Amino acid sequence: MRAEARNRKRESTRKINSLWLWLGVLILIAILLYWLFSIGIMESLAGVFNG
Q1: Measured between alpha carbons, how far is 13 from 32 in angstroms, rounded to an integer?
Q2: CA 42 to CA 37: how far, in whole Å?
Q3: pTM for the structure as a whole
Q4: Is pLDDT at 31 greater than 90 in this prediction?
Q5: Do 45 and 37 form a contact (C-beta atoms < 8 A)?
Q6: Rounded-to-integer distance, Cα 11 and Cα 5, Å
Q7: Percent of the chain whose predicted confidence (pLDDT) is above 90
Q8: Residue 24 gets which letter from DSSP?
Q9: Which pLDDT band holds residue 49 (cuts at 50, 70, 90)?
Q10: How far apart are the C-alpha atoms of 22 and 44, rounded to whole Å?
């Protein structure tokens, strides 16, 4: 009975760690896209002009 609870906890911990990993990856992608837009590379590719 204790071993089952331990295994269940280990599985849930693994799922939570996986979710945090994917959340971190998505945040890094968002930061990268923001940085690219801020330096203007993506603006010129997307055809967005200032003024």
Answers
A1: 29
A2: 5
A3: 0.57
A4: yes
A5: no
A6: 10
A7: 25
A8: H
A9: low
A10: 30
The pLDDT of residue 20 is above 80: yes
Which amino acid, one-letter code, is at 19?
Answer: L
Residue type, 11: E
The answer to whether 26 and 17 are in contact (CB under 8 A) is: no
| pLDDT, the chain, mean | 82
- How many residues in total does the chain contain? 51
| Non-local CB neighbours of 16 within 8 Å, separated by 6+ positions | none
Token digits of residue 25: 């990856």
- CA triple 14-15-19, angle to 5 deg: 115
